[in-house]
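User: Hey, quick favor. My workstation is busy. Could you predict this chain's structure for me?
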Amino acid sequence: MDLDDFYTVPEVADILSLGITRVRRLIEEKTLGAIYIDGVLRIPKSFIKDGAAFSALKGTLILLEDAGFEPGEAAEWMITEEPSLGVKPIDALLAGRKAEVRRVAQALL
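Assistant: No problem, here it is.
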């Protein structure tokens, strides 16, 4: 994974004009996904759109966790190319393909 594709929690706090504790709460609430890389919690840059957490992300992260994914695994799935979509799930979400992404996530149950 290229670290240039990720923000740290303090960077996201600055971008969203929130405290670090609030960013961690957004991660706990599945509004944002995050992955530990080299012991540092990182948020994929693609999860932030127009200075806010990308709204379509939350429901998909919840579906993935219902399918048995750990939070970090769910975030990693979102940024890894999914053969059935032909792109990374986050890219499909950003392109407005929410129903399709969620169908694929639902099939993982």
